[in-house]
């Protein structure tokens, strides 16, 4: 832990900080310099403790009473108060964004702002000489030395000021350099930042300039809105970008004024791009057409209209070119431009599972149920994703690497995107089914602690580029900190071990496909974790999320006796020992029979028998190596049956009932082995049917047919 620990917030009055000892100004600045130097030298991994939860303030700035540093009490929130401060140091990013601040009495203190998007530089966020207000501030001990830190856990409790707001103490307001009062100066700061692709800094500078504009600065205001629109869009704040783009449209102008027409065409285009990025294709189309009326041959607007048509088609029909998407997706370009396809699903009450996702029409096995782009995702390969980790004082849970970055990103983006905040905070947080999000002083009241609970219950690990066999089996993590994200609609899908749907990924797009036929108005389930042949292990993992699975498979597993469970585990141990010595089929066949005997046929009729899968697969492998084609076919079909597929077949035709089947990577292997066994026996027709079956299993599991032939090469069944 490099820099911080937090204590529970006490509520009893412990006296004002006038009575506490703190380093003087020189000491504090010196210590801060030392900290910066140490950080530059060591490039540390950054970890912090989250304190016991406390809520964000819900009060507007102007309703709060000013307080100064001497008035803050350690470990007590100054309810009903606001502190006005000026930053007097170049900020640094440790676990928090840290700097030194000064109040209107010239007293200095440390400041730590937690949970700020990691793509924002500390100095972009809080440059020296920035005026800020902290609503209902909290002073906590500084653990890495003597003294205290003003700590902000909810970024919305911090307000960046332009200096022109009412209530700012005179001494702070007049200490701003004269030039910073000029809107034009901040416009230039914004333009330079935009040129350097510092979009957060650019948007902040334009905001500052806008606050400093007078009534006469009409044209300047339009320029600033137009510039801020694109900075916000590139920073990912689309709602704000849309509002800015619309505000940048100059209302009154002559028909002959070509320059203004061009500016308005640009404003409409930017608003259109923001609406497009929000998935509001109707509004995006209107805005693009407005732009084209003013600037007929704008390539950008024409291209956007073309893209809108493609997205609408995807949205209405689920008609995506997944193979091409998968080919084009790579580590540098894994946030893709595609629409959501949600036409077949609806969130509804789901009994004792809370809310769930239901079909609005019948879906066939293998069909795409829905396709959704992440609300927010952090890939393990994102430069920001690895450094930070959080320990939660209350729950003792750890949040590592991309998970921490996801929290910071959601909190920063949701504060300025009320739609996103509403979607995110409507998700299950471990206690409640979402809560409405207030807007105060123009930003959404984002509760960091609640956000963390929502992430714990809803975030989903994902591959960095696309689902491949290795990624699905969990072998792909380069860093040990897997990529993770939030998909809004998919978050309503409840778990079942023997689920009727499963997920796959291409970049930040998640596809959910039906594993078996699903009728209209049925609940969709996905396995949160792969089932273990020892059901107590599965239930133990699910218990972390606060529930026990009651699917038909778990129900059957519950009726397995302790003796049967012990016998099953014995067979597994023997199998392991056998694998390290010899792989003779009589011994494996024997083990298979012993394991099969632990399954009660009445209870497990047609249900998957998890304890048989690895032995069944090994038998296929052994018969394949021996060139025993009839035995290979029999073992492969048995493996499919052990996966819960009911198979009727003669020498020419197969019929597969998937009603109880399990989603598993054993399934395409089994079908492929069967196809090969039949091919070797000269039964091409049935071989081709098993080949097609293998392909359909593969697409359900991995999203596309890519990788299927490599696997066949590995199995030597091409
Ligand atoms: C991602 S949310 C799913 C949507 C959630 N049911 C809701 O109302 O928003 C995960 C939570 O749903 C509940 N859940 C999911 N699957 C369940 C199941 N099979 N049985 C009981 N509760 C389940 C658990 O509370 C779990 O922590």
UniProtKB/TrEMBL annotation:
Upper lineage: Eukaryota, Fungi, Dikarya, Ascomycota, Pezizomycotina
UniProt superkingdom: Eukaryota
Name assigned to this protein: SET domain-containing protein
Region Disordered: start-end pairs: 1-22
Gene3D superfamilies, alphabetized: SET domain, Tetratricopeptide repeat domain
Signal peptide range: none
Any Pfam family the entry gives: SET
Residue span(s) of domain SET: 343-529
PANTHER family: TPR DOMAIN PROTEIN (AFU_ORTHOLOGUE AFUA_5G12710) (PTHR47643)
């Amino acid at each position: 832990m490099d820099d911080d620990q937090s204590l529970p917030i006490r509520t009893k009055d412990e006296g004002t900080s006038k009575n506490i000892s703190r380093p003087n100004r020189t000491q504090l600045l010196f210590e801060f310099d030392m900290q910066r130097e140490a950080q530059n030298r060591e490039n540390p991994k950054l970890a912090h403790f989250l304190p016991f939860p406390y809520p964000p303030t819900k009060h507007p700035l102007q309703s709060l009473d000013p307080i100064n540093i001497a008035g803050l009490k350690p470990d007590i929130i100054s309810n009903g108060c606001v502190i006005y401060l000026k930053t007097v140091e170049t900020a640094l990013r440790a676990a928090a964004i840290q700097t030194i601040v000064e109040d209107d009495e010239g007293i200095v203190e440390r400041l730590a702002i937690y949970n700020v998007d990691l793509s924002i530089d500390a100095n972009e966020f809080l440059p020296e000489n920035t005026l800020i207000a902290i609503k209902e501030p909290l002073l906590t001990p500084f653990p890495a030395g003597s003294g205290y830190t003003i700590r902000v856990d909810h970024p919305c409790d911090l307000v960046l000021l332009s200096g022109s707001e009412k209530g700012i103490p005179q001494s702070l307001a007049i200490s701003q350099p004269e030039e910073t009062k000029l809107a034009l100066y901040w416009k230039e700061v914004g333009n330079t930042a935009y040129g350097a692709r510092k979009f957060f800094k650019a948007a902040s500078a334009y905001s500052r300039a806008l606050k400093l504009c007078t009534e006469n600065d009409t044209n300047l205001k339009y320029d600033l809105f137009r510039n801020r629109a694109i900075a916000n869009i590139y920073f990912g704040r689309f709602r704000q970008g849309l509002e800015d783009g619309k505000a940048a449209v100059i209302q009154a102008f002559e028909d002959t004024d070509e320059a203004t027409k061009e500016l308005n065409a640009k404003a409409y285009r930017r608003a259109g791009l923001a609406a497009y990025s929000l998935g509001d294709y109707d509004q995006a189309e209107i805005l693009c057409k407005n732009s084209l009326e003013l600037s007929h041959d704008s390539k950008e607007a024409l291209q956007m209209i073309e893209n809108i048509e493609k997205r609408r088609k995807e949205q209405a029909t689920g008609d995506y070119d997944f193979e091409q998407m998968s080919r084009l997706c790579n580590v540098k370009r894994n946030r893709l431009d595609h629409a959501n396809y949600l036409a077949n699903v609806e969130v509804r009450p789901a009994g004792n599972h809370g809310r769930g996702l239901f079909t609005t029409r019948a879906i066939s096995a293998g069909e795409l149920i829905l396709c959704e782009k992440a609300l927010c995702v952090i890939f393990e390969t994102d430069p920001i994703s690895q450094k930070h980790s959080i320990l939660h004082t209350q729950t003792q849970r750890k949040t590592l690497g991309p998970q921490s970055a996801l929290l910071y990103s959601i909190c920063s983006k949701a504060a300025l995107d009320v739609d996103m905040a509403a979607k995110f905070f409507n998700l299950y947080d471990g206690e409640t089914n979402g809560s409405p999000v207030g807007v105060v002083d123009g930003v959404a009241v984002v509760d960091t602690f609640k956000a963390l609970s929502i992430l714990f219950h809803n975030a989903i690990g994902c591959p960095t580029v696309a689902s491949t066999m290795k990624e699905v089996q969990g072998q792909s993590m380069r860093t040990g900190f897997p990529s993770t994200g939030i998909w809004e609609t998919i978050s309503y899908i409840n778990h079942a071990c023997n689920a009727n749907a499963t997920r796959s990924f291409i970049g930040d797009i998640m596809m959910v496909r039906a594993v078996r036929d699903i009728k209209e108005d049925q609940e969709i389930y996905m396995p949160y974790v792969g089932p273990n042949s020892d059901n107590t292990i599965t239930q133990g993992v699910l218990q972390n999320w606060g529930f026990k699975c009651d699917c038909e498979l778990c129900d059957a597993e519950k009726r397995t006796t302790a003796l049967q469970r012990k016998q099953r585990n014995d067979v597994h141990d023997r199998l392991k020992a056998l694998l390290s010595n010899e792989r003779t089929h009589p011994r494996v066949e024997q083990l298979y029979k012993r394991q099969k005997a632990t399954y009660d046929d009445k209870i497990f009729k047609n249900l998957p028998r998890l304890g048989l899968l690895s032995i069944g697969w090994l038998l296929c492998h052994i018969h394949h190596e021996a060139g025993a084609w009839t035995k290979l076919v029999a073992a492969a079909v048995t493996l499919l049956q052990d996966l819960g597929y009911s198979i009727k077949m003669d020498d020419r035709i197969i019929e597969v009932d998937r009603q109880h089947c399990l989603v598993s990577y054993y399934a395409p292997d089994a079908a492929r082995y069967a196809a090969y066994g039949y091919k070797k026996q000269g039964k091409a027709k049935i071989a081709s049917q098993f080949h097609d079956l293998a392909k359909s299993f593969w697409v359900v599991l991995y999203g596309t047919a890519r990788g299927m032939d490599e696997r066949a090469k590995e199995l030597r069944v091409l």
